[in-house]
Amino acid sequence: MKYEKTASNRIFDTTLIVLLSILAVITLYPYYNVVVSSFSNAVELYNGSKLVLLPKGFNYDSYRIVFRNPILLTSYLNTFIYVVLGTLVNMLMNIFGAYSLSKRYLPGMKVFMKLIVFTMFFSGGMIPTFLLVYELQMIDSIWAMILPNAVATMNIIIMRTYFIGMDPAIEESARMDGAHDFTILFKIILPLAKPVLAVITLYYAVGHWNSFFDALLYLRTRSKFPLQIILREILIYNNKTLTSGQGVYEDTQAVSESVKYALIVVSTVPILCLYPYLQKHFVKGIMIGSIK
Amino acid sequence: MIKTSGSKQLVETVRKYKYLYLMAVPVLLYYLVFKYIPMYGVIIAFQKYSPTIPFFENEWRGLHNFIEFFTSVYAGRIIRNTFMLNLYGLVLGFPAPIILALMLNEVRGKIFKKTVQTVSYIPHFISTVVSVGIVLSFVSYDGVINEIINWFGGEKIQFMTEPGFFYLIYTISGIWQNIGWNSIIYLAAITAIDQNMYEAAYMDGASRWQQIWRITLPCIYPTISILLILQIGSMMSVGFEKVFLMQNPSIYEAADVISTYVYRKGLLELNYSYSAAVGFFNSIINFVLLIGANYASRRYSETSLW
């Protein structure tokens, strides 16, 4: 694309940069505000301006309260378990499913795929699904957090598209050497599929970390709740019993606000740490998925 | 290849590739159990279902549940809200990532472009609970937004108790969260555009603005229309989580949608058949809308989902 340094081009570029910068700032600022607020003195923040740029009276008290709270720590652990187990199940199902479905020459595979994609457009609904889980006696068990959403159709589509795009000669020559299908999959295909594997793992893992709907529907015992449910109680329903500082400050309202901020930071940090590492891969993954 | 009889050939193929078929079993089983059985389970919408009675012995009610819903006070409200939230989402939310993608594409500095992109993806990874928590905090009476309003001399507003603001808050916070992520697909489509067209247009004296309007946009039209079809196809469904977290009884007038109503009636009030009927009505409408949108797109442009 030819580019001349004309006046109109310059104005265009400058406007562009200004607008995009504003967008970037607006996007970041809410989170930045939260982080800064979490390190601020609770009472000062509560009584003063919330539009902060730097912490007001730097302190860690909110974090201390968060880490001392047993329910919060339990829910953090629960989420961790759900993420690890859930993603493992997800990936196994997804890989086996996508790989076998990618063999379009096998009778039935195309039909199966159509049936699977159909479920994206029509579903039984919340109530019948809930009742099914109930009938299967999975309510309030870890299985309810793993099985009902063991597979995400979109992710199957993405991975299958990737497998279809791979050179069939690789598989053929491996087969001629007498390799087993499972061997072909694990020793040859998967090592070549690292980008799509990374992306799909990310999708599933983040999905589990952020999930609260399944827990809301299917879990009943408090000690099994994942992080997001507890977060909901604190952030949205203002449950102050979970955020009381046991006499650290007189002003429980202020403290509870401050603890909210610390909580948000603590619950988003793991994702944000993974983020730069995986960002390289998922843009590619979307492009693959977008072909379908 | 010598053709043996059809079914013999089938058995041979399955035997030859038995491991591949084996691999497909878990996934197929999953879809059968967790997707197709609930579809059958929709039948309870036509019954008076109670979990204590064996499944096939529930009393048949036919369309009774549906009629009960449509004649109730709430039907109009929740259908309207579901539709309106989607309409706002369509009018405001749909163009936003496209505009962002177009803008990003024009940026000349690679580092700046990457930075803005990376920043814009971040809100997508924040959970619904947390992002609603942030939104609620920002629009609270003592929150940041009201502070800014105050600065400019205006009066503080109780955002979350007045139904009037709900649609906007919902839509704008949705744009904040998803504009970056949704722009990826458009950016991917843009990179596939033949650069020679720009050269030619430049030779003909087209301005940058014209180039965007007459080359970039039309070239990503297929992508846009597919995504548009998908969005219209879900015009009558609003995701449960975000609305549920943002609503409170004083704004039900604007904030109660079909999915949250189904949840309340079915899971909290245990009125299973009734809420299954509402949910089923929702699924059917969506399905019809999707087919309709796809048909319209196939007829008036050349792209469609199938």
Description of the molecule:
The complex is a heterodimer of chains A (292) and B (306). By secondary structure, chain A is an all-alpha fold. Chain A has a domain at 69-237: Orthogonal Bundle (MetI-like fold), CATH 1.10.3720. In chain A, 71% of the residues lie in helices and 0% in strands. Chain A has helices at 7-38, 42-47, 61-68, 70-101, 109-118, 126-135, 143-146, 153-164, 168-176, 181-192, 194-210, 213-218, 227-235, 252-291. The mean pLDDT of chain A is 85. With 306 residues, chain B is mainly α. Chain B has two domains: 6-60, no CATH class; 73-300, MetI-like fold. In chain B, helix 3 packs across helix 16, helix 5 (95-106) crosses helix 9 and helix 12 runs antiparallel to helix 16. The longest helix of chain B is centred in the C-terminal third of the chain and has 29 residues, at 272-300. Classes of the chains: A mainly alpha (292), B mainly alpha (306).
Draw up the topology in text.
The complex is a heterodimer of chains A (292) and B (306).
Chain A: H1 7-38, H2 42-47, H3 61-68, H4 70-101, H5 109-118, H6 126-135, H7 143-146, H8 153-164, H9 168-176, H10 181-192, H11 194-210, H12 213-218, H13 227-235, H14 252-291
Helix pairs in contact in A: 1-14, 3-14, 4-8, 4-11, 4-13, 8-11, 8-14, 9-10, 11-14, 13-14
Chain B: H1 6-16, H2 18-41, E1 47-48, E2 59-60, H3 64-70, H4 73-93, H5 95-106, H6 110-121, H7 128-139, H8 144-151, H9 166-191, H10 195-203, H11 208-219, H12 221-233, H13 240-246, H14 252-255, H15 258-268, H16 272-300
Antiparallel strand pairs in B: 1-2
